Amino acid sequence: MIRFDQVSVTYDEAAGPALAQLDLTVPEGELVLLVGPSGVGKSTLLGTVSGLVPHFTGGTLRGRVTVAGRDTRTHRPRELADVVGTVGQDPLAHFVTDTVEDELAYGMESLGLAPDVMRRRVEETLDLLGLAELRERPIATLSGGQRQRVAIGSVLTPHPKVLVLDEPTSALDPAAAEEVLAVLQRLVHDLGTTVLMAEHRLERVVHYADQVILLPGPGQAPVIGAPADVMAV
Ligand code: ADP
Ligand code: ADP
């Protein structure tokens, strides 16, 4: 579903590459956890999938990243909305409208869908994420877990094949984190979405993962496998 072919990212030539000649294939329809020490390049790797690298954060990308066959470098992130949805650590940074239902609809704006299709997708996403009762609520009045579910919903309405999340639970208390992780697990199981998520609080998330990718250190090859096998490395 996601393929990395000899991918290197350099922000600053003097500092050396943030990712070096990475080869990796992320399987389809699984919840995949990305782990590794701080600074090893997890956010950079996620950024190459969502198109944030190089289009928004800068950096030079060499090699090729494809998501469902689409090259992320030759498309702007907005043009990838129906392939990959991206959610960050801070849901507040994500929102552009006031209410829950407007936010879900906004994610589809660039797709050119008919109004009735957009309405149906908002309804289906509200139900899927347990947000139906909150549809008219101003986002500012929601809890952290509810906000993060809205952020996920807003990138889901284009029906992406892949969801990329950079530490989606790190700003949440344990109960809200469980709420968000349960939703992600449901997307994988019910819709076959591929979820790729970086997280440093392993004890919180590892039992939700189908696969773990470990970036052991700068320039070292990634290790991918079942959670128990990778965590034993
Ligand atoms: P992680 O997510 O594993 O902590 P990052 O991908 O954030 O790692 O960072 C990898 C390396 O790239 C670090 O040395 C970091 O300082 C550097 N880096 C990340 N983003 C940028 C940027 N936008 N500009 C310059 N350097 C960056
Ligand atoms: P469209 O909006 O293209 O007319 P529908 O809304 O009828 O299509 O949904 C098509 C199918 O996609 C439904 O079976 C629905 O369950 C499923 N679906 C719902 N949400 C998602 C999603 N986020 N990603 C992929 N498929 C989804």
TrEMBL record:
Residues 2-233 form the ABC transporter domain. It is found in: Cell membrane. Transmembrane segments: none annotated. Belongs to the ABC transporter superfamily. Probably part of an ABC transporter complex. Responsible for energy coupling to the transport system. This is ATP-binding cassette domain-containing protein. The lineage of its organism: Bacteria, Bacillati, Actinomycetota, Actinomycetes, Kitasatosporales. The chain holds residues 1 to 233 of 573 of the full protein.
